[in-house]
Amino acid sequence: GTLMDSRACVRMAAAAWASGFLNAALHTANTFSIPLCQGNTMDQFFCEIPQILKLSCSDSYLREVGLIVVSACLFFGCFVFIVLSYVQIFTAVLRIPSEQGQHKAFSMCLPHLAVVSLFVSTGLFAYLKPPSLSSPPLDLVVAVMYSVMP
């Protein structure tokens, strides 16, 4: 109750929803403005931006770089917020006097941290890997890893 009141909770939820909506709206608008000249079939479970760009016949490099910069800023802001939140959580947990209480608190936090780490690491690999490593089976496995597994 001392770290998180209802106002802080509403602000954080609103920031998460707003940043997610902004990112999705920008990518959706860009995707619908790209002409596809190589058909519309891709070897993925869902429409991934790198896969859609492979089907494009226009040079959308500058638009995509702009979207990547906006997405990177949103990601970095969220990442910093998550790290700062975990620093506060771990600091509070280490202040718990009993070892059993600390163990119980860590057992609640560590699975979430593992899922966040899996999501972030596979997402970064999916979007930042060099094109020379790109292959349809690998792209499919990585997409499942960061979208279904967490």
Automatic annotation (TrEMBL):
Location relative to the cell: Cell membrane
Domain of life where this protein originates: Eukaryota
Signal peptide stretch: none
Keywords: Cell membrane, G-protein coupled receptor, Membrane, Olfaction, Receptor, Sensory transduction, Transducer, Transmembrane, Transmembrane helix
Membrane topology type: Multi-pass membrane protein
TM segment ranges: 65-93, 105-128
One cellular component (GO) term of this entry: plasma membrane
Main location: membrane
Gene3D superfamilies (alphabetical): Rhodopsin 7-helix transmembrane proteins
One of the record's GO molecular function terms: G protein-coupled receptor activity
Name of a matching Pfam family: 7tm_4
Protein name: Olfactory receptor
